[in-house]
Amino acid sequence: MSNNSSSQPRFSAGADPAALEASLAPLLTSNGGRWALAAEGEALEREFKFKTFAKTWDFMTAVALQCKLKNHHPEWSNVFNTTFIRWTTHHPKGLSAKDVELAAICDSLAKDFGEVVVEQTQTQQQGAEQAQQLQQACGLSGLANRAAGSAGDCCVPKTAT
Predict the structure, then answer these.
(1) Gene3D superfamilies per the record (predicted)?
(2) Pairing with 17, which of 3, 98, 99, 124 sits 20 to 30 Å away (CA)?
(3) Rounded to an integer, what distance in angstroms lies between the CA atom of residue 94 and that of residue 58?
(4) How many folded domains does the chain comprise?
(5) How many secondary structure helices (H) and strands (E) does the chain include?
């Protein structure tokens, strides 16, 4: 995942930190969840893996429907049977209640669509760490940062012209 993570969440202005901490805690890898804080604590991110591209696409479609219903969207990418999702709020910047809620919804949807969860042995963990180092060296881990940076101000309220 991202190499600019933080151990402390940074919430959006106007958020209720106490309520969000309670909802966020079980999602985090440090508490047995699968989400990691990223972007200096202003984002949540994780990967989802499924047996086939079709299952992956079905999961992404279900997430997209939730995005429409909640009027919020992720930074995400997909390669074959793997989807990377990052939740963050751009305006006001930081983690919001929608980010935390949609991360939990993603976990539930992933379970419904048959996410492939592989328990990692120590050797697999070392291999994953080496793969992450390679991704960082090749610049792949910054893909979400670069894509978000070039996408424009998607969350800034539109002004009448």
Answers:
(1) Transcriptional coactivator/pterin dehydratase
(2) 3
(3) 29
(4) 1
(5) 5, 5
Continuous segment of H or E residues that includes residue 107: helix 97-112
Model confidence pLDDT, tens digit, residues 51-96: 999 999 999 999 999 999 999 999 999 999 999 999 999 999 999 9
3-state secondary structure 64-92: HHHHHHHCCCCEEEEECCEEEEEEEEECC
Q: C-alpha distances in angstroms, 117 versus 8, 20, 59, 120, 123?
A: 26, 26, 15, 9, 16
- Predicted confidence at residue 1, as pLDDT, reads 45
Helix axes 53-70, 97-112, angle to 10 degrees: 150
pTM score, two decimals? Answer: 0.76
What is the spatial distance between Cα 115 and Cα 55, in angstroms, rounded to a whole number?
9
Residue 30's domain comprises: 17-116
The per-residue DSSP string of 39-66 comes to TTTTEEEEEEE-SSHHHHHHHHHHHHHH
* Structural domain includes residue 157: no
Q: How far apart are the first and last CA of the chain?
A: 40
Q: Could you tell me if residue 23 is inside a domain? A: yes
